[in-house]
Amino acid sequence: MSYDVEVKDIKKKRVGNFWKDVFLLKREEQRTGWSFKAMILIVDELVVYKLSGGSPKLDETRTKKNPLGPIQEIGPKLIEQVN
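The chain above was modelled as a monomer; its predicted structure follows.
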């Protein structure tokens, strides 16, 4: 018998300039929280293998830049249409 557990509590919050975010020029997202993962393998009521991991504290900021704004995301789709 095996158990696979994954528990997390992650909160996302947009930060930065509102207008740059609306026009898809620069989007900043701050993520905070924690995560825990575990796998336990049991044979005949005896734990034969366990693996645990995760992140006790998550605090990161992700930034996505599009210098051309919405045109930058449309460009690859137009190229696919032509080909």
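The beta strands are 2-15, 26-43, 46-65.
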